[in-house]
């Protein structure tokens, strides 16, 4: 495929959590780099969402648990034929480094923002639709008028406790995605289903399709079976309809 679009379906809650966190981290980074006041508003919106996510669950414990599980499974591959010993050692070292960094990180992740009246007021107003206007929060309007460098420094300071979590999230998902082998398959009449080998702890289904085909997939299922059903979005003004055509795509089932 000259162009492709990949859709992912997590098969349990931990993976769902990490995918959400990965997407929010990416939005924060992109908006921060742009530097315009409006983009820094979006960076702060993403940061508020990130802190809401990581304070609702023990994200450090979830990541450490996933790294430990991956490490055990990777260790079983150590003596397999064709394993690159140097690359394997680098992988294990990276896993240990991030696990130790998460374990050593003391205190709550939100300690930098918890004591900030400014951040708290912005977070409260953002819970309302359009709640961060200048007449709601004059101090926020004033902050957005500050130089780019000043806003960037503050946003980075607030994100700093999340750096290790963001790095560990990216690494865990990278190894997870690379654990699967993509294969070409076809959804006949727009529908595909497959049973999963229960001997493996499946975590993620990835479907890659050429957007020029004019269809998108809806993936559903669990650890034993999944289905992929393709739809035609049309002009996005009316309800999508099932795609009753054969759709070639690449399928990757991930388990590590």
Number of DSSP-assigned strands: 8
Structural class: alpha+beta
- As for the CATH topology of the largest domain, it is YacF-like
Q: Quick one: CATH class of the largest domain?
A: Mainly Alpha
Can you walk me through this structure?
Belongs to the ZapD family. It comes from Thioalkalivibrio versutus. One of its GO terms (biological process) is FtsZ-dependent cytokinesis. The model has no long low-confidence stretch (mean pLDDT 91). A hairpin with a 3-residue loop joins strand 5 and strand 6. The longest helix is centred in the first third of the chain and has 22 residues. It is globular and about 55 Å long. By secondary structure, it is an alpha+beta fold. It has nine helices and eight strands. The protein has two domains: 163 residues, YacF-like (Orthogonal Bundle); 74 residues, YacF-like domains (YacF-like, Sandwich).
